[in-house]
Amino acid sequence: MKRLKNWRLFSLLAALTVFLAGCGQEELSTLLPAGQVGQDQFNLLLLSSAIMLLVIIVVVIIYLISLVRFRRSKVGEDHMPEQVEGSHTLELIWTTIPIILVLILAVPTVYYTYKLGDVTAMGAVDEDGNAENLVVDVTAKLYWWEFEYPDLGIVTAQELVVPMDEKVYFNLLAADVKHSFWIPAVGGKLDTNVENVNKFYLTFEKDSKNLKDGVFYGKCAELCGPSHALMDFKVKTMPRAEFDQWVVAMQATDGQMADADATDGEALFAQSCIGCHAVSGVGTTGAAGPNLATFGDRNRVAGYMDHTEESIKEWIKDTQKYKPGNTMPSFPQYSEAELDALAVYLMGLKVEE
Amino acid sequence: MSSVAQKRSFGATVWDWMTTVDHKKIGILYLLGGLFFFVLGGIEALIIRLQLLKPNNDLVSAGLFNELITMHGTTMIFLAAMPILFGLMNAIMPLQIGARDVAFPFINSLGLWMFIFGGIFLNLSWFFGQVPDAGWTSYTSLAITSEGHGIDFYAIGLQIAGGGTLMAGINFLVTIINMRAPGMTYMRMPLFTWTTFVASALILFAFPPLTIGLFMLTFDRLFGGNFFDHTMGGNTIIWEHIFWIFGHPEVYILILPAFGIFSEVFPIFARKRLFGYASMVFATVLIGFLGFMVWAHHMFTVGLGPTANAIFAVATMAIAVPTGVKIFNWLLTIWGGSIKVTVPMLYALGFIPSFVMGGVTGIMQGAAPLDYQLHDSYFIVAHFHYVIVGGVVLGIFSGMTLWWPKMFGVMLSETLGKWTFWFFFIGFHLTFLIQHWLGFWGMPRRVWTYMDGQGWNSANFISTIGAMLMGIGVIIFLINVIKSHVQKKPVPNDPWGDGRTLEWAIPSPPPFYNFAQTPLVRGLDSVWIEKQEGNESGLTPAEPVQDIHMPNGSIIPFLMTLGIFVAGFGAMYRLETSWGLPVLVLGLFFTFATMSARSLKDDLGFYVKKEQVLKDLKEKGGKI
Question: Which residue of A has its CA nearest to B274?
């Protein structure tokens, strides 16, 4: 009997898996989890869906039977039903069974709540005083994301780069209004509040190289003004060795500056853009505009536009048209030639091969 | 009513409605006001869905979209759903307990005008071009930095409307406690009266936090307060707590009366006593109580820590138990009954599967770690529309069609009613079912547009088509109302034929004093019992025919609210214009003056003479 029940539950779960996981895109679907955190949450989704489907089925069966059997056209116009007051047995049953179902869901819920909320290892250091775990400080701003790696002395923007198969810890904060940090395929979100740092961890277990755009999609999940919908970011995951190379390349950009005496777009950049945008990946959080040291490696312009020189030019000419309410000024005074030069320079800012 | 009323001039009629303290007329005004805002919020919803019809759409701008979602949510909750329910409560609850009016008719009128003026205040923002744009939740980091007077319209408009709601809630509580007819014990009260009672208790405890929150927000924005400015030592999370301590019970304030309506509809159209009455009452009270224990489940991703999240997760799941009890009691009510599928019953039958789906997705989101994924995604949009449209709005339609003949003396067309139902019902599922998956596929809520290539296109397209079907359903409903009122056929006391509660034993619409003689209540479903025992009138009088004491109408509630309304504009423009401060002072002074007028002059009401009551009874062909 028990085996039969297990088999039933298993087949139900299997059917559900097909039903739920059949859709969505790998780079941003919560149904195709790419890490342990997302997997835990997905398992909870399967369990709760199974319980809830059971409830729905029971209700619908009773509902349909009564609808078919007890229509007035069937029982007769003059039929006077028995005026039943209630039934203690039945009421006891449908109080007890929901309590049991809720308990079945409550236990893993509490377990995972504590598991996913555990950030005690965040500050752990080895014998030499080096941090044992990668920590990323995320700062959400109108409407872009800044990612600082405090233990590595580097900072980047719009594209989070992380190693695979280890816990990556995050400190989350908003610089202006509240936002929320969400990478649907990897794990649930956590708000970036304005007054306090929120901490959590995620693990990344799929190489983003194999994805459609080579990146996972990240989203802002809290209404933050007109361009809330455009406050996307991207996530690149890679094996630890590759990540280490990336870190070395980033650290090598130390002191890199745009040269005002150069003849091309670099000079233009040095005259105006440099006031807000750094081109060296070494530094800390707190810049007025996104760090551009890895701009050429990125997947999007302004977080969501195609990564082409054309987009760069459009964006610089009229930033408010493409991201209403953002804080970057527009530069309609630039000539076509100047914009071309600037775009070429920006595309050349790379640390990856 | 008497022929004198029909000969009145237009002006006199308007004056009559503006000064009325009759709970049935106030109910009708609530209902019509609520329907107006329901259509307005629906138009906003359609524009929202049209904007999301396809990726990169530019039907509306980003800023306008945020204004639309804010106004859609605020309007639907505060100005549509609640007032329509208040309309039904006002019109029906006193009849169900055998009373001649509510306990405080004057305050009842004041509450109505505060709702209407608050709603107008909020929506005037469209004409000023400065519309609230921080979402109906108006989380404060965004709400405080929002430019223009949009959020001020939100804060002051809701403050005025919210005050009216609080008054109405207290009024209903006192009415139900004090004004039940002889024999109407608590455990003989119809379920709609019970849910009105519990919802009013929730209003009593939930609206003061909103009032305080809105005052703090107003002070932050207009008077240099720093409650929510973290750079000055304030805290934005406090707003979230205050808002949801109000906001979660608010959901139950809406759904409990809908539960009450269905608990009336099922017995009438299944010709069978409500199954498990006592457990239904207990479940209602328990849901109301638990409703205050779960607000932080709206804040699982705020970073409250695992202990708080775990506690609120389990508390949230606990609500499933009393709600489940209700569902099964309804199922067992129709089980073994004689089901007649009229329009009100159609809505009730549509409600069960729809609401169960909305309920179970609520439990899924109660599982905190899972909610980290679902929160602020389209899944939550799907969930709360399943609860509010699949529960509250279906309840409203069911209740309106059930009691329309009682309130207006006009029967709505069953045929058109069924067309409305099917368009609305199919459109509803088409719109919102797919949105669960949009959430799974990573689409955040409140986005004004989305890029191509994320797999969201067809689902959004389907959703928009569904929304249009719902729109067609509502249009058919409005046509139905107009058409039926033009045809205007006389309606008997009990047009549905199987009425069980007191309102079905008096004329439709009832005389303004409701009951010629206060009825004696001998059990649950009083009228049903009387009829089963051969008393065709359905009523046993508890008193002889005698003079009836009734309250006088008054224009003061209208004027009192007008003062607050004007003062609101003064407060908003206090700093940037020279007339702001004087208008603020003048408005408040005017309100205080009208309050004094009310306090200093005794209004003792009047008596309906015994002869008049007898005459009315004769005209209606009633017996003494």
Answer: A85
